[in-house]
Amino acid sequence: MPVEAVVMAAGEGRRLRPVTERWAKPVLPIDGRPVIATLLRQLAAGGIVNVTVVVGRLASQIERLLDGGRPFGVQLRLARQPSADGSADAVRRALRAGAQPPLIVAAADTLFGPGDVGRFAERFATSGAPGALAVRRHPPPGPGRVAVRTVEGRVTTIGDGNPENPLAAAPLWGLRAETAGFLDDLPGPPFELAVAFRRAIASGLRVDGGGRSHPRFDACG
Length: 221
Fold this sequence. Notes:
The protein has 221 residues and is α/β, with parallel strands linked by helices. The chain contains seven helices and 13 strands.
């Protein structure tokens, strides 16, 4: 079954205020190109052409840029998240809008290294694991860093609280129907994917932490 993508683009961009009071964070340029445009091209290059973009505040700016997905070689679906109620809520809204697992979920304000998104998606598609989480070794310090632990490529802990842990989660997830079932009945708001995946792991489901390679990524703010 082909892998689809969900791109979370409804965040408020609080750390980039006052710029994001006027501009949606995903349309801000990095290297002269809107960050969400680069991500969509990375998805298309990885063979992921069915994409649901979850929009919220300043959605019209994002919609105008995306132009139905045609400039980026993807088939685009939009879902709306009226308030920034977290990553799990964004995925739930994408599912209600018609997205179908297996899914790759990425943050619209994040750039990945060339080919990293495609490699992650291919590994997830062929692994059969109910879930996957991209893991980076020695990411740059900053807010939102979530340390993880893995054993033989399997994620065992998300958010271990150890500042010396060299592994951290990238905002790139893989979900099948089994893991999507953990998106409901979460504490919040905000409702977060990390909590849903912790529950999935606790239930015994395998969450793949990637192979020997670790993706490069940088968040916009």
